[in-house]
Amino acid sequence: xxxSLTALAIALFLGxxxxxxxxxxxxxxxxxxxxxxxxxxxxxxxxxxSVMYHVGxxxxxxxxxxxxxxxxxxxxxxxxNIQRGEWFKIVTANGGQNNANTSDDRTYYYEVFPSNNLxxxxxxxxxxxxxxxxNQIGVDTQNEVVKEEKRLRVDNQPYGNMFTExxxxxxxxxPYRWAPIGSMEHLDAATLEEFKAFxxxxxxxxxxxxxxxxxxxxxxxxxxxxKYFGNIKKGAKVERxxxxxxxxxxxxxxxxxxxxxxxxxxxxxxxxxxxxxxDARVLDMISSILSGGKSSRLHKKIxxxxxxxxxxxxxxxxxEDYGMYIILGIPMQGFTRDQIQAEIDAExxxxxxxxxxxxxxxxxxxEFENSYVxxxxxxxxxxxxxATYYLLYGDINLINEEINIYRSITREEIREVAKKYLQPNxxxxxxxxxxxxxxxx
Length: 441
Hints:
- There is one protein chain.
- This protein folds into two domains: 22-229, Cytochrome Bc1 Complex, Chain A, domain 1 (2-Layer Sandwich); 252-436, Cytochrome Bc1 Complex, Chain A, domain 1.
- With 441 residues, it is of the alpha+beta class.
- The chain has helices at residues 2-20, 67-74, 87-93, 118-130, 136-155, 162-170, 184-189, 192-202, 218-229, 278-291, 297-305, 337-353, 358-375, 379-391, 398-408, 411-421, 437-440, and strands at residues 26-29, 35-40, 46-53, 97-102, 107-114, 208-214, 252-258, 265-273, 309-317, 322-331, 427-434.
- α4 (118-130) runs parallel beside α9 (218-229), α10 (278-291) packs across α16 and α12 packs across α16.
């Protein structure tokens, strides 16, 4: 009885914590198509101003990959009103910080300022959208910056090409088949006119969402948004091509030799559905069962008990059109791919055959409740989540309601989704290995 009361107390505590995390917001759309989301939080005199554009690596010409990521850098070069090299100086001088990032599906820019600089942040983002300076000096400068980033984060980073190789082998038609950083040869070959055309097509108000979160007054903020963004002209509608992959009907076997590593990594990967689907969320739960912490099945069995691997991980990489489910292991010396794979497959088979225990199910639910509470715990994450749910999921209310989807997932669904997607005949087996001696010589 005592244990039951304790469990009830924990459940009530989590329920109260989750309900306390409800995110209140206002949203509306300007005449030019820019969607605006406002969230008020007066707990600190800080405001986050962000713009997410619905353009990522998947929107690129296959002969001009890397454009979306390139623009993540290029649009800090300056505007008609902000001289070249002055963007970061202005932000810093006014007590702020800023950054940007790119994925296969979107590009995201944000500033964090003391709330008395809200108008400055709104003006800067509007000017970046309205009149960026795109010239040859900026293109040449950022080309070198991107090349250095690729050398540092990909080419010279141990296992730096892991995602690139998984994507290249899992996708044959869809533009997810290349990495967001793209090809340096493509960027070198691109003309200034091509960069300007990319900007004109994708960096338009009707292809973006503006999120302002923090210590704001709603009326004042709406007036400022109208003042700086309202007169920007609407762009042509972005037409998107829905490219479907053929099903994988037999294992894809591949190898990649990385000169930066000494230990191999054995990767098993599956193509999975869009992150909008219920099944994608079930796969998130399966990832937690298999490798969510040191008590997870794969870690306990392969790393702790049998000491076959230094590291093992399983995770679902959700994306707008498709996802990837990846399991990887770095073996201890003397253990082969087949031995590691056999242990992984045994755990997957158990998930496909047997229901997880009620105890494990409750632990899983608690993990996702805790993750949900933490996901919006800081203002920067909350602003990005609001933008993401609106732009990529098509339902901004998921910021409050998605946890209910996870709560409703059953043990039976976990078993059936494991059966549906984690099949031996529909996966990639990638041996990510050190450079072989004969290849090095």
